[in-house]
């Protein structure tokens, strides 16, 4: 495993960080854009809305499996080479989606695309934190993840519009083009690795990620973020069939949601740089509160628009603290731990999409999705409190050692 890249001066951020953001934009677009196309895909491929929603679960499970697998396979490669290779896989996968003749092939193509996701964000997050000073690591992660939020702000509404006007396949052709551009930008702007030290053996990395605080961090990511995707996956049918918006209104509301995601992502990064555990608890609690209140807002168009903006802020404010927590607790195996945490985000996505489908088909229905999502997020808060309790004795020990030394 290569050593971190030389950090940039605190007065400016390196271009390589923005190149990583470009890759995150492409991957975020292909991950999220299907949410604005569920009805079109379901109608064209003759499947139910819940089955179309499983295209999100399939992608997320591919990320969960692919993250540790590809991280292990690429652990001895230079990080830059890994990032470029993963963008090539991503681009080929989206091309296969655009050409898919049926639901099965589309699902397989989505899974192929997803294999690049976890390791790209995992390795990319490590590269991003190595490009900046120690007190800006969470902010560097949030800037890279801004690619995801901009994907929701611009890529997903544009993809939804393309799908509405020209068919859902046109959206995947556009994402393929984005992948080509992002590959070129990363190859050009991300600095080459410094190879001062030998890579850490994968077996040693596994020992690190088995630490209790790392495992709890992964679990709080799964549960804390699953609540987001209980709602996020079914945003189109919620808006059109519960609140009563026309199909043409979905893209503007997704745009507003994307604005919220950007604000929340940057806010979460700043909070995590100051007080990490406090920011974890605060952002997860904020998300749960917004989800509960959203249940009562869905029958008012004005309130629904407002709460989807708040939902965007609350949802992505959790991302930088969740990612930085795992990185800090996995010192010595950050590539693997970071990739596993991206996989944990996506396992949460898969569980959320699945649970939302169950609520629609066998439970109380679309209108009940937000409060079900809130319950899932509360379980993530419980894990965060457990982790905080374990952290307290360690802090006491460190403070006592410091006092003794003085």
From TrEMBL:
<keyword id="KW-0812">Transmembrane</keyword>
<feature type="transmembrane region" description="Helical">
    <location>
        <begin position="82"/>
        <end position="101"/>
    </location>
</feature>
<dbReference type="Pfam" id="PF07690">
    <property type="entry name" value="MFS_1"/>
</dbReference>
<feature type="transmembrane region" description="Helical">
    <location>
        <begin position="170"/>
        <end position="192"/>
    </location>
</feature>
<dbReference type="InterPro" id="IPR011701">
    <property type="entry name" value="MFS"/>
</dbReference>
<dbReference type="InterPro" id="IPR036259">
    <property type="entry name" value="MFS_trans_sf"/>
</dbReference>
<feature type="domain" description="Major facilitator superfamily (MFS) profile">
    <location>
        <begin position="16"/>
        <end position="392"/>
    </location>
</feature>
<feature type="transmembrane region" description="Helical">
    <location>
        <begin position="249"/>
        <end position="268"/>
    </location>
</feature>
<keyword id="KW-0472">Membrane</keyword>
<keyword id="KW-1133">Transmembrane helix</keyword>
<dbReference type="InterPro" id="IPR050189">
    <property type="entry name" value="MFS_Efflux_Transporters"/>
</dbReference>
<feature type="transmembrane region" description="Helical">
    <location>
        <begin position="305"/>
        <end position="327"/>
    </location>
</feature>
<dbReference type="GO" id="GO:0005886">
    <property type="term" value="C:plasma membrane"/>
</dbReference>
<dbReference type="InterPro" id="IPR020846">
    <property type="entry name" value="MFS_dom"/>
</dbReference>
<feature type="transmembrane region" description="Helical">
    <location>
        <begin position="339"/>
        <end position="360"/>
    </location>
</feature>
<feature type="transmembrane region" description="Helical">
    <location>
        <begin position="366"/>
        <end position="386"/>
    </location>
</feature>
<feature type="transmembrane region" description="Helical">
    <location>
        <begin position="107"/>
        <end position="134"/>
    </location>
</feature>
<feature type="transmembrane region" description="Helical">
    <location>
        <begin position="280"/>
        <end position="299"/>
    </location>
</feature>
<feature type="transmembrane region" description="Helical">
    <location>
        <begin position="141"/>
        <end position="164"/>
    </location>
</feature>
<feature type="transmembrane region" description="Helical">
    <location>
        <begin position="213"/>
        <end position="237"/>
    </location>
</feature>
<dbReference type="GO" id="GO:0022857">
    <property type="term" value="F:transmembrane transporter activity"/>
</dbReference>
<feature type="transmembrane region" description="Helical">
    <location>
        <begin position="45"/>
        <end position="70"/>
    </location>
</feature>
<protein>
    <submittedName>
        <fullName>MFS transporter</fullName>
    </submittedName>
</protein>
<keyword id="KW-1003">Cell membrane</keyword>
<feature type="transmembrane region" description="Helical">
    <location>
        <begin position="15"/>
        <end position="39"/>
    </location>
</feature>
